[in-house]
Amino acid sequence: MNLLMILAQTSKAPGNFDSAQVDYGTKYVLQALDAIWQQATALTWQQAVIAIAFGSIPLLYGWRIYKLLTVIGFGLLGIFVGKWAGTQLEQPIIGAIVGAITLSIVALPLMRWAVCVLGAVAGGVITSGIWYSFFLPQQYVWAGAMMGIVAGGMLSFAILKLSVMFFTSFAGSSLVILGTFALIYRYETFVNDPPTTHLNELFYGNHLFLTILLICSVVFGIILQFKLLKESKDWSV
Q1: Residues 67-109: pLDDT tens digits?
Q2: Which site in 59, 73, 161, 209 is 20 to 30 Å from 89, CA atoms measured?
Q3: What is the rounded CA–CA span in Å between residue 213 and residue 35?
Q4: Which contacts qualify for 228-234: CB closer than 8 Å, 24 or more apart?
């Protein structure tokens, strides 16, 4: 089944889909949301502030230090890939370490390709979020992700500077949003009397909330970085 056929099927009413497929797609979407929520609620006040501070750097000034950010990003990607591979050999820690070191080293001579991969990841996350936000069939959320992966990856070869700003703004926005969520959660839980759950209800109850917040933050970062780029004379690839 090609992508066009899948997209054509999404115009059908949700009731036309097999319930097992719907449950399968929903399970992974909810797992992703749960992972984000658990990470945010696990942060302390200090960690939340640090996340916002560190996230502000690539969000506002990522184009200046994109090579460093690319190496770090590839290293983090290597941790996940290496941990998965190591788990197959019952050595997840060693696999994560080897994966992080290997991809960090590889990112240096293959910088443009590394930017391509990170741009593809950022594009995939955003378009899959859009797919989820507009209540499209969740068993095909991977199709939405594929559109962003292709677009984000191709962007690095068409307009490298824009691609750099895109993935650095995405990385910075993610950290800032995560830290902000942590601060709001801790305020609602430990400061408010009685405690409230407004953020939790908005996070899980409003499909558009997280996607719009992320897209607006990324666009803000790109616009600001473009403005700073015009004022800089020594930007180089």
Answers
A1: 999 999 889 889 999 999 999 888 889 999 999 999 999 998 9
A2: 73
A3: 17
A4: 228/60, 228/61, 228/63, 228/64, 229/63, 229/161, 229/165, 232/64
User: Tokens 């502000």 appear where?
Assistant: 56
Burial class (CB in 10 A: 0-12, 13-18, 19+), 133: middle
- Coil, helix or strand for 38? helix
Which residue stretches of the chain are H helix? Answer: 3-9, 19-42, 45-61, 66-88, 92-107, 111-133, 141-158, 160-186, 198-205, 207-230
Domain ranges of the chain: 35-59+111-229
Nearest residue to 119 (alpha-carbon basis) of 149, 161, 80: 149
Please tell me the total number of residues recorded for the chain in this structure.
Answer: 237
Half-sphere exposure of 224 (CA within 13 A, CB side): 18
